[in-house]
Amino acid sequence: MIRSLLAVIATAMVVLLCPNALLAQSDIVIDIYESGTAKIKIGVPPFMKDPASQYIAEPGIGEEIAQVIRDDLDFSGLFRVHEWVPPAGESGHDPTAFPPLKDWIPLGVQSVVQGSYRRAGDKLSFECTLLDVESESRIVGRSYRGSPRDVRMVAHTFADEIVYRYTGRRGVARTALAYVKAKGDAREIHIMDYDGRNSYQLTYDGSIAISPAWSPDGSKIAFTSYKEHNPDIYIVSLLEKSYTRVSGYIGLNTTPAFSPDGTTLALTLSKDGNPELYLLRIKDGSLTRLTRNSRIDTSPAWSPNGRELAFVSDRSGQPQIYIIDREAIDLRRLTYSGYNNTSPAWSPEGDKIAYVSMVAGRGEIFTISPTGANAVRLTFNGGNEDPSWSPDGRYLAYTSRVGHDKDIYLMRADGSGKKRITFGGGDSMSPAWSP
Fold it and tell me: What is the arithmetic mean of pLDDT over 258-268?
């Protein structure tokens, strides 16, 4: 379900009217935003079964974990990944052992991942090491233990460790996306790994659920559901498995957004007439009204410091992005170029706001400075919606329509590296990136 102004309001009216319907000193730190930064060449050969293991491990594990690490590192945009392994017998190489690090030098590879796994009962143990090729020294090593179903998470965890060693910031491989998936006439909230794997259904209302939003600690998701024949806002606790309605006023209760401290929801309510922005204190349900005008205000997005919110309003005649402080004293218009500008999403660094603007009648994703300067177009194929920032601000998730279905894609913050992550038919949309 599109989180933009017009789609949210249109859906609301249809349903209301039709209720059944740590860095070491030797580590290298990279500024990934510096233009022209050269990619690090890294080798990731298949993990090997530990020869000391007394059990036969499941086939394919060694290649699977290596491939997940390759994919994570490749998507980061920091690395040029190699999976080359010398043929058996080359340079006297033992095919049951890792090739000597010097064998990677002709390829220009700077660091290599070496990993092994072994079976112990119903558990798997993994040894993961990142080595510098030139000095033949260890950069970082980690041990992990889990079940066979944890292979991907082990890979994601070590990939994030590699990114941290080179940048000083964790990667996003262990994050998740909440999103909306069509189920016949229903729309349900689902959660999946950041790369589109391990998806599972969160809501089973048999109704329309839209606008998922994560709490800052990642333990809760707020969303709008029509399961009681009115667009009400609920919060699901992922730890306690509780399901609580927090806003059920007559009319619209939509586009929830957690404040950075997790105490407050910004939301759209129409209880006093037309849709306006409010702040709802989660602890006691008290409300503070932010906007007062005769037009529609919706889709609030918090600044990282919690002092301001970007939102959509058609008070100028067409939907545009505005910014208001949480005391409702300072209000300013952000976007002036383009028309039907919707779905603002404030970057974690606070330096950009992503949004959707109509170009030749189709949605494209842009970013703009909170000052209104430096508008940059990121997509060029049309049918793009719902931008959501990764917690490190390096990437965006978004919805794109290609053919008949909507699917979720990822891209880097400069618009490069676009990657589709949902498949299989039916609409997948409105991604919300976890902390």
Answer: 98
Taking the model in full, what pTM does it have? 0.89
pLDDT greater than 50 at residue 170: yes
Cβ pair 407, 399 in contact under 8 A: yes
Distance (Å) of CA 389 to CA 127, 170, 227, 349, 373 = 32, 15, 29, 10, 19
Please, are residues 330 and 322 in contact by the beta-carbon 8 Å criterion?
Answer: no
The H-assigned helical ranges of 5-150 are 5-17, 61-76
Asked whether the predicted pLDDT for residue 198 surpasses 90, the reply is yes
Cβ contact 341:301 at 8 Å: no
Residues contacting 405, CB < 8 A, separation 6+:
425, 426, 427, 428
CA atoms within 13 A on the CB side of 376: 14
With vertex at residue 38, the alpha carbon angle to CA 106 and CA 82, rounded to the nearest 5 degrees, is: 40
Mean pLDDT in residue range 201-227: 97
Of residues 130, 116, 124, the one with CA closest to residue 79: 130
Q: Is the pLDDT of residue 111 over 50?
A: yes
> What is the distance between the alpha carbons of residues 207 and 186, in angstroms, rounded to a whole number?
5
Residue 165: CB partners within 8 Å, gap ≥ 6? 23, 24, 27, 130, 139, 140
Q: What type of residue sits at position 358?
A: M
Domains of the chain: 5-20+172-433 (2.120.10.30), 40-167 (3.40.50.10070)
Per-residue pLDDT at 30: 42
CA angle at residue 224 from 221 to 229, to 5 degrees?
140
